């Protein structure tokens, strides 16, 4: 279930009330290999209701759900805006080639003012992302976060802001 959302008050006045789907992502970084195509299909279904080239996805580009989301947005001719949690974030990516490929295709990149990755940087990046989106997709199994700044924390922060949240956890999905 995905919809086009109207921008909220308090955003750029030139963009107010313009139907622009600015969709954020949160989700597990430890998805199993068998889960990746399931999540890809679920994200494609949720995002494909938007006209080609009329979609902006906002992601921290974490391994797993964030990178799958970014790839799907780009495949749908949308643009990706990236929020990096820290200046050393790249060094913590398990697949540098995929991370770099997605980062190179980003329409905008914002790096948070944290020198090192960690829970505070992750949550600050997620809050920054939430302040810039109209809705959130969460690739989430519904369990509590394993640490501060995890998927459950981001979902709770989105609810606190009044953002629509769509949880995607396809049948057969699993964390590794």
CATH architecture term: 3-Layer(aba) Sandwich
Strand order of the largest sheet: 4-3-2-1-5-6
Major sheet size, sense and barrel closure: 6 strands, parallel
Parts with pLDDT < 50 across at least 5 consecutive residues? 1-18
Oligomer: single chain
Tag the structure with descriptive keywords.
single chain, 176 residues, alpha/beta, Rossmann fold, six-stranded parallel beta sheet, 6 strands, globular, disordered N terminus
Structure description:
This protein is α/β, with parallel strands linked by helices. The chain is built from five helices and six strands, in the order E-H-E-H-E-H-E-H-E-H-E. The protein has a six-stranded parallel sheet with strand order 4-3-2-1-5-6, sandwiched between helices. Strand 1, helix 1 (35-47) and strand 2 (56-59) form a beta-alpha-beta unit. Helix 1 (35-47) packs across helix 2 (65-75) and helix 4 (119-130) packs parallel to helix 5. The model is unreliable at 1-18 (pLDDT under 50).
Could you provide a short overview of the structure?
Helices cover 32% and strands 16% of the residues. By secondary structure, it is an alpha/beta fold. It has a 6-stranded parallel sheet with strand order 4-3-2-1-5-6, with helices on both faces.
Topology at a glance:
Blueprint: E1 22-27, H1 35-47, E2 56-59, H2 65-75, E3 79-84, H3 96-104, E4 108-111, H4 119-130, E5 135-139, H5 151-161, E6 165-168
Parallel strand pairs: 1-2, 1-5, 2-3, 3-4, 5-6
Helix pairs in contact: 1-2, 4-5
């Amino acid at each position: 279930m995905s919809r086009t959302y109207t921008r909220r008050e308090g955003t750029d006045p030139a963009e107010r009330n313009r139907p622009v789907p600015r969709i954020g992502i949160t989700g597990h970084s430890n998805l199993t290999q068998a889960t990746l195509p399931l999540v890809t299909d679920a994200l494609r279904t949720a995002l494909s209701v938007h006209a080609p080239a009329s979609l902006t996805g906002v992601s921290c580009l974490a391994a797993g759900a964030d990178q799958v989301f970014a790839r799907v947005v780009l495949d749908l001719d949308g643009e990706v805006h990236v929020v990096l949690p820290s200046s050393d974030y790249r060094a913590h990516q398990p697949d540098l080639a995929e991370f770099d490929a997605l980062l190179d295709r980003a329409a905008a990149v914002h790096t948070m003012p944290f020198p090192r990755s960690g829970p505070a940087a992750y949550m600050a990046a997620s809050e920054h992302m939430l302040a810039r989106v109209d809705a959130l997709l969460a690739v989430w199994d519904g369990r509590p976060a394993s640490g501060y700044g995890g998927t459950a924390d981001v979902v709770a922060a989105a609810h606190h802001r009044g953002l629509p949240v769509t949880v995607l956890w396809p049948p057969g999905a699993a964390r590794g």
